[in-house]
Amino acid sequence: MPESDAGFLWDFWYPAMRSREVRGKRLATAMLLEVPLVLGRTGEGKTFAMRDSCPHRGIPLSYGRFDGKTVECSYHGWRFEACSGQCMEIPSLTSQDKLKVERVFAGHYPCEEHDGYVWVYMNAAGTRLPEQVPAAPKLSVSSERFRITHLDCELPSHIDHGIIGLMDPAHGPFVHASWFWRKRASIHEKEKKFEPIPNGFRMSPHTPSSNSAPYRMLQKYTGEPVTTTIDFVLPNIRTEEIRSGKLWFSSRATVTPVRRDLCRIDFVAAWNLLLPVTIFRLFAKKFLRQDQETMILQAEGLKHDPRLMLIDDADRPAKWYFGLKANLLESRRTGAVMVHPMNGPVTLHWRS
Ligand code: FES
Ligand SMILES: [Fe+2]
Predict the structure, then answer these.
(1) DSSP readout, 189-251?
(2) Of all protein residues, whose CA lies closest to atom 3 belonging to ligand 1?
(3) What pLDDT is attached to residue 217?
(4) 174 half-sphere exposure, CB direction, 13 A CA radius
(5) Of the N and C termini of the chain, which has fewer Cβ atoms inside 10 Å?
(6) Do residues 256 and 152 touch, judged by C-beta distance below 8 A?
(7) What pLDDT, on the 0 to 100 scale, is given for residue 207?
(8) Residues in the chain with pLDDT < 50?
(9) Nearest ligand 1 atom, CA 74
(10) How far apart are CA 233 and CA 94, in angstroms?
(11) Which phi and psi angles does 320 have, rounded to 5°?
(12) Whose CA is nearest to atom 4 of ligand 1?
């Protein structure tokens, strides 16, 4: 199977698209882990995700029609119940035919909506769903009223490069140097504590970098210390929570494999600070664009399959990511409990 060597992690939730892109009786398409999907919303408002391929002859089901309940294939008119994928009708059958229509299924995946995204649980081809599919990720918010905004950008990279780029602490002063964030000359030695958490690691709660203007402003405003907690968990989720007194800011970035040479960052942030969405988006977009431009340049070099290095301590989180991924696959293969690549809390040092 070509999927098996693309370095994807199956049996996890991935965001397929924004909720608002799935409306009415329109069928939308997306690709996750090289699987083409057709998504839609039933008349009752429930989103669904099917493999965008008719089980009869493989034509994309997205060329068919959707009546709010069933998807009708454009080729021979087979109809499938959208949420279960179960075949409801094969128009060519006569009363003499023995084929059990209800035993035919179109490929379909569990689908949930949170934080403005349609999430799809990508279980590996040919495997059964676990009895209890875990809940899809949800952004943590700490008050009833808050602002929220979403951004995304595509990276012409393998998922692993997308993720290690996301957790890389040493590129900041070079890629994101700017007057409002930090000056390149402000590079200084940092010490950060990390601890293992299930399927990932946490940068222990700490007071963020004193050379970042926004944190200094926040501290001045509330008069209370600012703490940041950053988590990474498999397969692809980085969350960051910043608190100062009653004020909070919470964000999540996921890097989702579309194909082996393409991934997408979906970034959602919510906060109850007096920070207008428009201003935040201006800065966040610039940040993402800087990362994207860098990854485009990197992809140029990676075409030639160079040998690469992971150095201590700045690339240690990247090493943990590869360790987590390998150990998860190993535990799935053997059925043994997953071994965490960290034995306990670790303090890392780098200059950034
Ligand atoms: S290909 Fe879909 S019904 Fe024949
Ligand atoms: Fe970056």
Answers:
(1) EEEEEEEEETTEEEEEEE---TT-HHHHHHHHHH-S--EEEEEEETTTEEEEEEEETTEEEEE
(2) 76
(3) 76
(4) 8
(5) N
(6) no
(7) 75
(8) 1-3
(9) 2
(10) 53
(11) -65, -40
(12) 76
Backbone angles phi, psi at 285, to 5 degrees: -65, -40
Tens-digit pLDDT profile for residues 36-72: 999 999 999 999 999 999 999 999 999 999 999 999 9
The owner of tokens 């009833």 is: 144
Determine whether the shortest distance from the Cβ of 57 to ligand 1 is under 6 A: yes
Task: State the pLDDT at residue 181.
Answer: 61
How many angstroms is it from 188 CA to the middle of ligand 2? Answer: 17
CB 7 within 8 A of CB 231: no
Total residues belonging to the chain? 352
- In angstroms, how far apart are the furthest CA atoms of the chain? 81
Q: How far is the CA of 173 from the centre of ligand 2 (A)?
A: 10
Per-residue pLDDT, 4: 55
Q: Which atom of ligand 1 is nearest to the CA of 78?
A: 3
The amino acid at residue 191 is E
Rounded percentage of the chain residues whose pLDDT exceeds 70: 95
Q: How far is the CA of 182 from the centre of ligand 1 (A)?
A: 57
Among candidate residues 352, 351, 319, 348, the one with its CA nearest the CA of residue 203? 348
d(CA 190, CA 250): 23
Q: What's the rounded Cα separation, in Å, for the pair 318 and 311?
A: 9
Q: Which atom of ligand 1 is nearest to the CA of 54?
A: 2
Determine the pLDDT at residue 1. 40
pLDDT of residue 2: 45
Sign of the alpha-carbon torsion through 13, 153, 161, 171: negative
The residue whose CA is least distant from atom 1 of ligand 1 is 57
Cα atoms found within 13 Å of the Cα of residue 1, Cβ hemisphere only: 11
| CA separation for the pair 332, 20 (Å, rounded) | 35
